[in-house]
What we know:
- The protein has about 725 residues and is α/β, with parallel strands linked by helices.
- Helix content is about 45%, strand content about 20%.
- The strands form six sheets. A seven-stranded mixed sheet has the order 10-6-11-12-13-15-16, sandwiched between helices.
- The protein is elongated and about 155 Å long.
Amino acid sequence: MVIESFEPEYTGYEGKKEKIYKEFKKHGIDADIKTFYLDCDSYLDAEEKNRMYNFLDTVAYWNPELILVYDDQAAYSIMACDHRFIQKVPVVFDGVNFPNWELLKLYPNITGFWDKPEYMKTVQLGEMIFGPMYFNIWTDNTFLGRKTTKVFLEEAKNIGVERVSGKLFTIDRNGAYSFTLDSITTIKDKSRILQKPKKTNFRLIDARESTSSGLLWSLSGLARYTLFVQSKRDFASKRLGLFANGPTLSVVNEGFGLKEGILGGYLTSPETQISQSVNLATEILHGKKVKDIPITPSPKEYLLDWTEMDRWNISQSNVPDYCHIIKMPFYERYKLQLIIIGILAGIAIILIIFYLIYLYFRENRNKQIAQENLKKGERFLSLALAGGKVYAFQLRENKFSFDKEFYIDAGIEEKILPTEEFKVCLHPKNQESFNDDVINARLGKYQKNISQIRCNFDGKGYQWWEFRYTYNKEEDIFNGLCLNIQQSKEAEQELINARQKAEESDKMKSAFLANMSHEIRTPLNAIVGFSNIIAEEEEVELSAEERNEFLGLINTNSELLLKLINDILDLSRIESGRMDFSFKSCNLTDLMKNIYYTHLVLMPPEVELRIDLPEKPVVIETDPLRLTQVITNFINNASKFTHKGYIQIGYTCDIIEETVEIYVKDTGIGIPKEKQQAVFERFSKLDEFAQGTGLGLAICQVIVKRFGGEIRLQSEKGKGSCFTIALPL
């Protein structure tokens, strides 16, 4: 059971129950937590104790194992209501500034932490930031107010302060204090109030004295060089920090960091209170006896609220290093580090560019060496083919005869081949050239000839053969040599393809480097330019809004550069075969749901993300990480070009065709038919002003091909697009 002193609407209670639960969870305790709000400012003393008593009747029925109590009013009321149940259950309190020691003696089952107010250390913090000032101590004539006043006066007396509010004060042995006027007038005229004091002065301000001109004077702003110190939080004081025309410090942590106008103080943070109270509660739940646990002072630290520092124009340079500042924006806390990171990122990008240029020249040099090697290989291949198997043949009386080895290597029966039967083995496109060669030789146009024709002697397919022959006109005989040049032809074609590929590769690399140089230079200029402006902030005055905008631009362009380089590296690894693909069984329904919930919160305001899945899940063998990468890319592209309507993801399964089709459909601007094929090309961007590198769909297509599938696109301008991944089931 958690009992809080203030109203349920108190901002400091937001998320506190969850924090307490998580702290118990760290210790292995799954706590069932219920919270009661005493709302102490709404009730008088007797009503408050009666409210606590009635509540404990209900709690006794629930029978909690331990009670956590926070702040003075709840700690006092739970003991003062005199309920029998409190004698039975362990109670741990925290955030109590003024423990009631007499009542605590009656409850050996109650222990906790004493958050003792530290006035002079809080005043010391104010002096370190502002120098000597007029310190107004907020207090009142209530029971708790008199206690705060007594603690303040005791601390003041210990450091040698004799007068408060221009009066001498005394404290007797019983702790009672009194004020007396003496013959010395501290301030003879009000004009001195307008001057900064040479040493710190203290004044007591009654926060509940509604008719007090002194209170109104203090809040009006006419009392200059004034600081305020909050002693306790109640209905009368919780808004004074917002009304006061000077910074407000506090000796209690209630209201600090909650937009109640508290600059800071020497305090115990709420996180520390939760941590130490739960730690102690855990020890008790594990068997440690409460009577063996003494009441311990809470650890404190100097705390400041960045929001209030900004409100009072307090420079961070005026704040001591040992102070902990809360709510400081990320860019303010790490401004120097961000500038250094920006400069280092710029240097790294420049080095990467130089390295890529070096790779280009090295690749160009390797290409020249490769071309030279190709020429040498071509010459070597020619020599090797010339030393291959050669067969003699003779054409006489329209009949072919060959060496015995020819029939063996050709895989046909050894026999004389008539010319007409020989022509049947020729490729239809070569039959005419064969006839022309025979006729021209007989007409005496040439006596020597070389013919390369395709023949199919064994019925297994056409192969290239070379016939070198001479014609003897007197005897009407063709004598010559023939050899199978199929390997030579294939090698020749491979050389032609290799040369074409090398030339195409050269063009692609040049285009690639040109595109990459353009894509890198644009964000790089933005990063370097805005980094220099921020670095020269002393010479160029920048507003907080401008600095935030510049830092945002640096972050955006850095992310764009990082994505460009990652895309280039991914594409390089995929095409070179060095990217690992981990294939395993994947439940498509689970994968699509994970993608859906990931992108649901990222959709633009007027775009709805839908999902359509079959009733029976489908399991396929794939790489879930790479498949997720492809689908995510489709969704991101759809969200860029869909300003209203919906984006729908899902999949269908065709058992007969043994395929599964995963789709991403949108109601965006669509893609014209003449540009649909171009979207899969590298660095292709239909909208040059849209963010991106133009590599995403090219990478997706390569990944899907490695899966053994294909990407289909259906789109109509102005009506939306549908990207479909067809994979084998």
